[in-house]
Design goal:
The complex is a heterodimer of chains A (119) and B (110).
Chain A lengths: L2 E5 L2 E3 L5 E8 L8 E6 L5 E7 L6 E3 L7 E6 L4 E6 L8 E8 L6 E4 L3 E5 L2
Parallel strand pairs in A: 2-11
Antiparallel strand pairs in A: 1-3, 3-8, 4-5, 4-9, 5-6, 7-8, 9-10, 9-11
Chain B lengths: L8 E4 L5 E6 L11 E6 L6 E4 L13 E6 L2 E6 L8 E8 L5 E3 L3 E5 L1
Parallel strand pairs in B: 1-9
Antiparallel strand pairs in B: 2-6, 3-4, 3-7, 5-6, 7-8, 7-9
Chain lengths: 119, 110
């Protein structure tokens, strides 16, 4: 069965960096686009970034463009999110989600990892 | 990248039907048949319940249905059950090669 397991969250000071990972199993990772979606405490879902199956195409939400970088290692079945210049409003649970091919939606989600940006 | 517009809350009694609206623009909801809906219970990850405007993934109850007219999509839940009480989010692909969520709707089963 499809499994997505995020890691790397924690407490970080404003302006610092953090890298999240998402370990995938149960499907052909190298054939699937992948997304990051976040949810601030008590708030709604916000799409963050997408990366194509081969890593060649990436797109970002305006709120993170220039600060966050999505990448993947298909040999390790792992998705990454490098987050730089973190701000208080980046505090959220970060989910990785698998793209449902040709349907442009998120068919499987991880359980999320909490990132808290605070001094 | 403005969020899609959903009502903050809806409610219904067991057995009744409710509809949640999701309003966007011609650059997202109105421009593509890539509207999806997600159910999220407290403390849990979201779950896909509708994709491609009106398609249900395998295993999702046929009490959930989706539709779209112009720039507005809708999710209908028929035969409300206590377990349907959750937050619901719409999502659409956009002309900027990005995705946008609605603000979410809290469903209360009375």
């Amino acid at each position: 069965q499809v499994q997505l397991v995020e890691s790397g969250g924690g407490v970080v000071q404003p302006g610092r960096s953090l890298r999240l990972s998402c370990a995938a199993s149960g499907f052909t990772f190298s054939s699937s686009g992948m997304h990051w979606v976040r949810q601030a405490p008590g708030k709604g879902l916000e799409w963050v970034a997408v990366i194509s199956h081969d890593g060649r195409n990436k797109h970002y939400a305006d709120s993170v463009r220039g600060r966050f970088t999505v990448s993947r290692d298909n040999s390790k079945n792992t998705l990454y999110l490098q987050m730089n210049s973190l701000r208080a409003d980046d505090t959220a649970v970060y989910y990785c989600a698998k793209d449902r091919s040709r349907n442009w939606c998120f068919d499987y989600w991880g359980q999320g990892t909490l990132v808290t940006v605070s001094s | 990248q403005s969020a899609l517009t959903q009502p903050a809350s809806v409610s219904g009694s067991p057995g009744q039907s409710i509809t949640i609206s999701c309003t966007g623009t011609s650059s997202d909801v109105g421009g593509y048949n890539y509207v999806s809906w997600y159910q999220q219970h407290p403390g849990k990850a979201p779950k896909l319940i509708i994709y491609g405007v009106s398609n249900r993934p395998s295993g999702v109850s046929n009490r959930f249905s989706g539709s779209k007219s112009g720039n507005m999509a809708s999710l209908t839940i028929s035969g409300l059950q206590a377990e349907d009480e959750a937050d619901y989010y719409c999502n659409s692909y956009t002309s900027s090669d990005t995705w946008v969520f609605g603000g979410g709707t809290k469903l209360t089963v009375l």
